[in-house]
Amino acid sequence: MEQNINVRVANSGDVHYAETITTEMEASAKARGTGIAKRSPEYIANKMNEGKAVIAHLNDGTWVGFCYIETWEGEYVANSGLIVAPEFRKSGVAKQIKRRIFNLSREKYPNAKIFGLTTGLAVMKINSELGYEPVTYSELTQDEKFWAGCKSCVNYDILMSKERKNCMCTAMLYDPADHYTPEETTQEFEKKSKVYERLMHIKQLVFGKKEKNINGGASKPKSLMHYFFGY
């Protein structure tokens, strides 16, 4: 079935997929219990019309997956909203979509820093294979419009309580002016994947609890959690 999947730049002829895409985005977020910035069908359709999206489908037109480009401050690009239809997950199509949207971003914005926020280890792995590195939130765009997009996420209160320094998502960045090779970032991810997995789990546990004694208690020594997530 994978051989029949077409992965290409979306266009105005694909707008009929927009509602299906946004519905699946919302359903997937609820299933994970993490949430993503909600987008309307009109917003997705506009990305298609602008040629700033990648879509995957079968030869018979069955929708398979999607991702789109956002730009911030003229310096940052985000590959956002990666979603694959449930029946095609674990088929390798997500990697194909990510690679195509990454290449499209490099074609359109060759000097821009490409970044992403993710709660999934699988997406971290794909990003690493493209040359992304885990970074702190301070290295991302500070454009208020970008952060406003997080308001519809179920974790928005966590983000704001941490003064936008960290949240459930892990930030990753590709800087065309200063980056390791994809081979190096892939090797580094493989070496630390178990650590990342444990840290994500701990992060979910910590952020899942209400903060207590914010102004009280002795300060704790800095740990790996501090340096990776900013605790």
UniProtKB/TrEMBL annotation:
Keywords: Transferase. Residues 49-108 form the N-acetyltransferase domain. It comes from Panacibacter ginsenosidivorans. This is GNAT family N-acetyltransferase. Gene3D superfamilies: 3.40.630.30. InterPro entries: Acyl_CoA_acyltransferase (IPR016181), GNAT_dom (IPR000182). One of its GO terms (molecular function) is acyltransferase activity, transferring groups other than amino-acyl groups. Pfam families: Acetyltransf_1 (PF00583).
